[in-house]
Amino acid sequence: MAKNTATLTDNETGESIELNILHPTQGPKAIDVSQLYKKTGLLTYDPGFMSTASCWSDITYLDGDQGLLEYRGYSIDQLAEKGSFMETCYLLLNGELPNKEELDSFINLVTYHTMLHEQMKRFYSGFRRDAHPMATMVGVVGALSAFYHEYMDIADEKDRYDAAILLIAKMPTIAAWSYRYANGTPFVYPNNNLSYAENFLHMMFSLPSEKYIASPIMVRALEVILITHADHEQNASTSTVRLAGSSEANPFAAIAAGIASLWGPAHGGANEAAVKMLIEISKSKEDVDYFIEKAKDKTNNFRLMGFGHRVYKSYDPRAKIIRDLCHQIIDGGLAKEEHKELLDIAMTLEKVALEDEYFVKRKLYPNVDFYSGIIFLSMGIPLNMFTVMFAMARTIGWISHWHEMMGDNKTRISRPRQLYTGKSHRDYVPLAKR
Ligand code: CMC
């Protein structure tokens, strides 16, 4: 078969160059511009990476038009319905679903690394009690690099795998402790007899004076939330982890950078923002239509939070799964009246928006963050912990991408260029003459 190429012609000089077209196993083809600058002195310009594939990856595939999401070829619907979070972690990191023996040994490995170094506790007390838990997460996860740096060789695959296990194992403890510190209750140590999700709820809600017994419906709901948030190809935070890691930085520091990127309301912070918006609507004298009009008004920076996506131009498959989960929690009698009211408002917003020309034309649908907050509220998780929950789940995605990138001999330090628009060639003016 003839090599598939695209021709780029400079109309000014008449010079042409053939560029290879790359064929992934699924998804859009890409023009290989990696040698463009070397051969022509031209750069490509793509703010926000609207048309840029930054790497080859075997991990996650998503088709935004069809609303399809697959981890290593397995659909998110099947994983969320039949799988466990530990299986999903193994799958993302290793490429295949584990057999029974592999899964048991993986769970064992994770379970026996959930403790934090006692010295880590001191990092928490350095923060104000009212610090946002995402700020605490960035600090404490970054601080892990101080505990695992000197004797970790990132060129060694085994060391890289160990770093991944440590992160998956310790993230729930770090997350739960950021909550315990904020509300002034004692840090609760992990319990090795519990599953990953149940252990997190135990560390969040147990007290020395009172054991917390998690409802099996809530434990399963948390598993599903963890599975649906586990990876999402080259989103902002994953790309941040890859970019930070490309300089061969410590992986714990690179993950801390990913957490910082996730925090913003355009990304993972949207789950907190979406519920704040629903609460605002429930307290307001205005109806849903008023907020829909406000979201459409270009003179106002209000957006329908939990709506819209860079890649999904149809219903986010994760939002469907999580919306159904909300109903299961309500049907199971586990939600308070005020949470049911928020779900009603969310469903009305969705209905009105999906029939409104503005949202239809722009293909704006509910995303993963639209309904997840209602589940978190029903679990007793406070608003400012929502994005921490996302970070805990996404850690496996981040570290799998880092692991893949570090093992890829095509990896170079990520170093975009710019189109300079500033002043040029000026002589220094002494202070007295300015
Ligand atoms: N409400 C109202 N209008 C919107 C919304 C929204 N939620 N989202 C996009 N639009 C409009 C936007 O104003 C623009 O209109 P126009 O073409 O007239 O200028 C058009 O739709 C395209 O939007 P964009 O901002 O250019 O698209 P983007 O791909 O750069 O941004 C997004 C994607 C997710 C940041 C954006 O849809 C948004 O801000 N949504 C709300 C925040 C949110 O829910 N974020 C979570 C994303 S999914 C989970 C995750 O990544 O963590």
Your description of this structure?
The chain has a 3-stranded antiparallel sheet. Strands 4-5-6 form a 3-stranded antiparallel sheet. The radius of gyration is 24 Å and the shape is globular. With 434 residues, it is mainly α. The mean pLDDT is 95. It starts with a strand and ends in a 28-residue tail after the last helix. It has helices spanning 36-40, 76-82, 85-94, 100-111, 121-125, 133-147, 157-183, 196-205, 216-228, 236-245, 251-262, 270-283, 288-296, 317-331, 337-354, 357-361, 369-379, 386-406; strands at 5-9, 16-22, 30-31, 60-63, 68-71, 74-75. The structure holds carboxymethyl coenzyme *A. The site of carboxymethyl coenzyme *A has 19 residues, from loops. Carboxymethyl coenzyme *A binds at residues 235, 266-268, 270, 295, 303-310, 362, 364, 367-369.
Q: Would you identify the regions where 5 or more consecutive residues have pLDDT less than 50? A: none
Largest β sheet strand count, sense and barrel closure: 3 strands, antiparallel
Count of beta strands: 6
pLDDT averaged residue by residue: 95
Present the secondary structure layout.
Layout (H helix, E strand, L loop, with lengths): L4 E5 L6 E7 L7 E2 L4 H5 L19 E4 L4 E4 L2 E2 H7 L2 H10 L5 H12 L9 H5 L7 H15 L9 H27 L12 H10 L10 H13 L7 H10 L5 H12 L7 H14 L4 H9 L20 H15 L5 H18 L2 H5 L7 H11 L6 H21 L28
Antiparallel strand pairs: 1-2, 2-3, 4-5, 5-6
Helix pairs in contact: 2-9, 3-18, 6-7, 6-11, 7-8, 7-18, 8-9, 9-14, 9-18, 10-11, 10-18, 11-18, 12-15, 12-17, 14-17, 15-17
Bound molecules: carboxymethyl coenzyme *A.
Carboxymethyl coenzyme *A binds next to loops.
